[in-house]
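Re: that chain you flagged

S.,

Sorry for the slow reply, it's been a week of failed gels. I finally had a moment to sit down with the sequence you sent. For the record, here it is as I used it:
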Amino acid sequence: MDIYEKPCDDEFFIIDSNNLNQITTSFYGYVINEDGFVNTDVNEKEQLTHDGAYVFVDVSDEKIAIYQDFIGSYGLYLFQSDDYFALSNSFVKLVDHIKSGYEISLNMDYANDFIFASLTTHSYGETLVNEIEFLPRDIIINIDKATNNLEFEEINYNEHSIRLNSIQGIEILDKWYYKWVNIMRSIKARTNNFCVHLSGGFDSRVVAALWLSANINLDDVKVISIDDGKHTHSEDYEISSQIADHFNFELNKGKVNESKICCEDIETPLMNSFNVKLGFHKEMYFKPFKYKELVYTFTGSGGELVRGFYNASPSEFLDVFFKRISNKDYTLIRSSLNIFNSSFSDIASKYNYDVDSIDLDDYYLDVRCRHHFGKGSVETFLSNEISLNPLIDSELCRLILNDGECTDKKLLISLIFVRYCPDLLNFKFEGGRGIDSKTIDYARKINDEYPFAHDEFEDIGTPESDVNSDNANQDNCIKRKDIDGFLENMFDSRAFEMEFKKYFSFKTYDEIYNIAKNTDYYPLKSVYSAIAVLRIANDVELSRANDKKDDMFWFNSFFNEDYIEDVMIHKNKADLIKYATARMDFRTIGNNKIEILENSDDYSLQFSPDWGNSKTGKRYIIESYNGSIDLKIRCIGSGKLELSLRSFDYRDKYGTFPIYINFRNLQVNGERYIYNKTITHTEKYLFEKDVEDGEILEIHIDWTPLNESSVCVNKLQLVNDILTERNEELTLKLKNLTLEYEKLKSENENFKNGKN
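Prediction finished late last night. Pasting the structure tokens below so you have them in one place:
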């Protein structure tokens, strides 16, 4: 079995101002030429186009010039300190390079914002390290080797500058069409390792207009449509199936040779993804293999570039965004505002706009699209798969998406469908979305004014290839679930939780925990962001200590049994903690819930399990071994609040093991309810209170593990006390019944004797 042994370190570079004379001409990634040739070995600038995912370092006697693709897929990262600088196409690699020689600091605004970002960072030029800058996509870097001087040469791609309803606009569109159809045909003529994506949305269908027109035998092409029941995939697959039936091809077939070289450990796929995306993107691919032969996959990536994404002004966008995150901690909200203000100001300055007049399509191209699809293409390339994205095309992006007579930004994709494959408009779009009929009519009007004459493409034969994928012994290889399991276990560890709470609140940790446990589609997105922040925070600490460890040292440190924490110093702390842990179960009854405003124990665990919720109430659980805790709780809605005090729920193969906790004090709004009471998980103490909407409760609890001074009630004595209490109640009831009987008896005798 072939083994993929090491991360793709040779796809990343460090250029240090102290070693400029040692740098040689190098190419990283791949460039796509218009004839369909994908080049991974460029040695001169003339071989570059704007398409692909690459960085090219061109070295001459006097200077070093650094070029990148249209959206800057890798990214270029710069650290400067006085006369020193270091550059890399990997943020993680650059941090590793400088942390042993220079002190760096954590960008907390960036970290706070990234934790709950929907998919990618919102930042234009900042990173998790204050001293490292993320450079724009549309620059060439020139380094003077003699003076160590850095200069940035701007490239003007003239995005969104050409009217679609014009001769020049139509020429650009047709040139784009023939360019990508010829690329598809050229690749298909050489290999059967040809894949296309198809879903029920807009973007992959726009690309389908190309390959459906290219006179390619679709029986040889793998048309990938996912049907795993997650996200929107079920509806996507249903729509894709209808398109496949209409155009007479099958889904998920083809002749792709998918023979793979396996990874032998977690480190390789882990670091491949982290070297590309860590701290910028929240969905990692973690591909634990490389294809033995190059696989070419056409996608709809970047489709928002040709149909608009943020159809709002910056102020309107921020209004919606902050409503969505209004339940987050104030510090996180404030940090997001700072990041957006900085990014929008940078975009406005770059394109010479007033801040609230900027076109958010520019922001999308420079930020979200770049990190999402650019970095995704690089990450995929590390597994020997070439991602080809016709919608991320510098010439196509020159077109204005709408027109004076049609302000709908879906005008461009409407014209692509009408002009090149009109039958694709006969199928619905996923999620109830669609294209306005007036927009389609206007696209037809443009097409009638500038009619399109289809060229007849010659037939393409099927190349000879081995379609019997050799993936023997794949069961012994690292799987994606192994990597995610490793990271989830790391996040679940007490050590990680405590480290995380040095920087963020218990509320933030709890929310990430709940997302990870209760989400089907990419459940660990926020876990990846938490790991990114702590990974860089650790590097910041190492930069101050001038200490350097290898990549996996930090990951594995959270599984170290000797991890020391301030609250309890003991090698066997995991075994002892359960004897000191108090559990507080809050349950709301009625149309109400609670918000925990303050928690004095940063190391406590807080979660809201699904099993504790019902139509009439919601459960919140806090576990702490600190010995005391102060909570401030706000009630939202009127109803009843229950607080159960328990010990840790410990079970082994023999069943539940009772652990006794001595609760010394429970105070609610200054009134004391417990003076000294020893309980277990099942023998709980229950506090109940009717609450009003907006009512604030301040709760203080302190406790100790069971010890010789604890008030521990003997179970036999407890039973005797209960029996005695019940006997006393029965005796009193019997006495009262006897008196009632004597009274009735006397009244009956008086009635018989005629007495009133």
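What I noticed first: Residues 715-752 form the longest helix (38 residues).

Talk soon,
D.
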